[in-house]
């Protein structure tokens, strides 16, 4: 009976935890996330409005401007 009660309490607590990705604001046209620290698979692009870092995955590169010649 005690184990059943513990299981029910654990499920109720886990049901109130928000999903992991919802805590980060999006930046860089939706490609990046505003965080305090970037992961080792990300690079810093610019500052977000709340003074956190806009972290973008290494594979994503900004589009070249139209004034640059290739």
Protein model, in words:
The protein is α+β, with helices and mostly antiparallel strands. The protein has a domain at 26-62. 20% of the residues lie in helices and 26% in strands. The chain is built from one helix and four strands; from the N terminus they run αββββ. It has one helix spanning 2-15, and strands spanning 25-27, 32-35, 42-47, 53-57. The chain has a four-stranded antiparallel β-sheet with strand order 1-2-4-3, with no helix packed on it. It is elongated, with a radius of gyration of 20 Å.
Short account of what is shown:
The protein is α+β, with helices and mostly antiparallel strands and 70 residues long.
Which SSEs are present, and which pair or pack?
Elements (H helix, E strand, L loop, with lengths): L1 H14 L9 E3 L4 E4 L6 E6 L5 E5 L13
Antiparallel strand pairs: 1-2, 2-4, 3-4
Helicity level = 10-25%
Q: What is the helix/strand order?
A: HEEEE
Distance between the termini: 71 Å
The tally of helices reads 1
In the sheet with the most strands, the strands line up as 1-2-4-3
Report the major sheet: 4 strands, antiparallel
- Rounded to an integer, what's the Rg over CA atoms? 20 Å
Tell me the fraction of residues in β-strands, as a range.
Answer: 25-35%
